[in-house]
Amino acid sequence: MSPATVRRKRAGRARNALLGAVGVLVAFAACEALGRSGMVRSAFLPPASEVLVRAVELGGDTAFLNGVGATLEAWATGLALACALAIPLGLLLGSVPAAAQAARVLIEFLRPVPSVALIPLVSLLLGAGSETTVALVAYACVWPVLFNTVYGLGETDPLAKDTLRAFGFGRLAVLLRAGLPSAAPFIAAGVRIAAATALILAVASEILAGFGEGLGTFIAQAGMATDGTRDVLAGVVWAGALGLVINLALTAVERRLFPWAPEHRGSGA
Amino acid sequence: MLRIDRLSHRYGDGPDVLQDIELTVPDGQLLTLVGPSGCGKSTLLRCVAGLLRPSAGRITLDGEVVDGVPDRLGVVFQDYGRSLFPWLSVRENVALPLRRRGLPRAERHAAAVAMLEQVGLADAARRHPWQLSGGMQQRVALARALAARPALLLMDEPFGALDAQTREDLEDLLLRLHRAEGMTIVLVTHDIDESVYVADRVVVLAAGPGRVRADLPVALPAERDQIATRGLPEFIALRTEVGRAVRQGAATPPPPRA
Fold first, then answer.
1. Which of B:143-172 have CB within 8 Å of A?
2. How far is CA A67 from CA A51, A52, A203, A218, B87, in A?
3. Where does the UniProt annotation place the signal sequence (chain A) (predicted)?
4. Cross-sheet strand order for the sheet of B64-65
5. Do B51 and A165 touch (CB under 8 A)?
6. Contact, A242 vs A196, CB < 8 A?
């Protein structure tokens, strides 16, 4: 890639970041104005600046941070568990047609069940603790990772497989040396999508459980307190910020790990 | 020695793509397979590589029946962009087939670098295939196919996607490597000039179904030169003969089915 193209790409990214900031500022100003105008009671919708100040304040609150830590721990554990299940399963289903056929009906039955609808059931089974959160997060995350693994394997170039076969590699070696690496960018995208879903599930199951430790618990308890709207919104700001940071971090990791993928070529190396 | 015995192939219930192919290739010969599109030349190559099981007939290599991919085989495909692994460096790509030989890592490494030197790409060892030009990528593919010192090298239109100048450079590189290593080479091409220039022997296939139409020895001096060799009367006479055979091979109506 020529230096001019690199410059153009960087300029494009800087411009996108700027536009993103403008969008945030406009939304912030609108919320602020709505909060201050008196159209909505400020107990229901405090001005955005107050919410933001409270969110920053919470950054120094050890109890709150411990809660966020607990939420992130459940999030990471659930996501890791889902990957540990879904990637090998995806490799199996993507490479053994009989296994895929056998699993099809079961998967098509389970997939449309909204994970949030399972919260009461899982709470009954596992109690309202972090196990419940982890289990729900894992359940929700299995699907995007599983489907992206199977899809990514299907996209493996037949010529890459023939090349390995012609060098005398067997079926498993072809799967691990051609299938897995060429599916890897798809799998990573599935993990990124799953990470966002995982955060939703982690916070939602904490909110519904209503006690314990976690960002969702904080939001739920603030919601029951008088004049707690500001705390609720500050918690929501934290949840959103976590999601944003996680997404940015995972996108950066993908760019570094898969510089060969056509959409990254030249931007990393 | 490579022997192809009454080999026929069809895909599913389709018509014969190859019919009763008989061919014996002595060790060390560079044979080019040329023919009109649809004559089954790539199919024949895939059968020899053990990637495809022929519907009938058999292939033997040094007296052993080819059933699956033979040992000591090297393959170069036309589409280097898809055949090289983008997640591996150039050196790792070249070293990959050596894993099957059970060589320790350091030796694989050294052999890969030595092979890259032979194709003039020692400097590119740490780069990735997609950072190289098409000609360089096909050199990497050639180095990879030769890294394990194959006794038989199969090439499926290896230079078809390259520009004329690069193609000539690679043809000469191939001739140099063939002379140095002495392996048997079967090279499929649709380029008639190329089929004569690099070959010891040209086999022309006819289409619909694919069968051997002409089998021509190349009586050109072993030392080939892109300008001088192509100007020799023998070269011109042979390329005319091959060209005519290819044309006739495309025009013949399919024979009545037995």
1. 148, 154
2. 19, 19, 11, 8, 40
3. none
4. B16-25, B2-10, B56-61, B64-65
5. yes
6. no
Distance from CA of B224 to the nearest CA of A (A): 30
Looking at the complex, does the CB of residue B79 fall below 8 Å from at least one CB of chain A? yes
Tokens of A84: 């540990």
Q: List, for residues A101-149, the tens digit of each pLDDT value.
A: 899 899 888 888 888 888 888 888 887 778 888 999 999 999 999 999 9
* Residue B213 tokens, joined: 């139409």
Nearest Cα of chain A lies from the Cα of B41 at a distance, in angstroms, of 17
Residue B254 has a pLDDT of 55
Report how far residue B22's alpha carbon sits from residue B204's, in angstroms, rounded to the nearest whole number. Answer: 12
Q: Tell me the whole-structure pTM to 2 decimals.
A: 0.85
> What is the rounded distance in angstroms from the CA atom of residue A46 to the CA atom of residue B18?
79
Any B CB within 8 A of A219 CB? no
The answer to whether B53 contacts chain A (CB < 8 Å) is no
Q: State residue A65's pLDDT score.
A: 94
H/E segment holding residue B188: strand B184-189
Tell me which chain B residues have a C-beta less than 8 angstroms from the C-beta of A265. 130
